[in-house]
Amino acid sequence: MSFSTLSFSLLGGVLPALFWLWFWLREDRLHPEPRRLIILSFLLGMAAVLVAVPMEQSLCGRIMGNSGTGCAMELPLTGKVFAIIVGLSVIEEVLKFAASYFGALRRRDNDEPIDSLIYLITVALGFAALENTLFLAGAIKTGGIIAGFDIGVLRFIGATLLHVVSSGALGFFLALGFYQRGKIRKVDAAVGVLAAILLHTLFNLFILNNEASGLHLFSVFAFVWLAVVLLLIGFEKVKQFKG
């Protein structure tokens, strides 16, 4: 990979993620999180991609019966394609949760309900930053800067916010259980993980269906921003939680 391709890919992958991080951190301006934990969570989110990629390749290889290089999600929606979509969602959402747990959620600084939303979204944006960088590198290498730009725009309003919304849903359920006892908190966490996986799966199915309809960009934009609006409402609700 050339230096210019790597540079454009990093800029196109990381800078948009940092913009969204700035946007979401503004939701907790009264009690901002420690900068070191925000940075750590973002980096752990990026590191989670390095774990996810070989796991996803192995999953696809097992399902498709090949060496792990064929992981295309395409119509028709066969049982194997559906299994891949669900499997990828499980891997990514569980890894993002694990990264947020070891990065921030188990620490004393996680001391109010909204913190779970902030840390999970930060991890999600770190994950999206490196994932987008890899996608951009492939697009630029095969189709040039224009192809990379097109992919970057789609992922800026699509896949990046998907990660935010799915992880934010988990963060919301963790916030619901913040002041509850151990067993209830575990139930809320489990429901949150399932909600994140479900959202991720539905989004990928939605993308797959709309790629064949010619309304891909508009539909993705509308679907994701509806989810973002709901997440913003969730933030406002969480701010009202009291012990």
From TrEMBL:
Q: Which domain of life is it from?
A: Bacteria
Q: What is this protein called?
A: Protease PrsW
List the source organism: Candidatus Taylorbacteria bacterium RIFCSPHIGHO2_02_49_25
Query: Could you tell me the keywords of this UniProt record?
Result: Membrane, Transmembrane, Transmembrane helix
Stretches of the chain forming a coiled coil according to its record: none
Recorded GO molecular functions are: peptidase activity
Q: Which InterPro entries does the UniProt entry name for this protein? A: PrsW
Q: Does the keyword field hold Transmembrane helix?
A: yes
Q: Which Pfam families match?
A: PrsW-protease
Q: Which residues cross the membrane?
A: 6-25, 37-55, 82-105, 117-140, 152-177, 189-208, 214-235
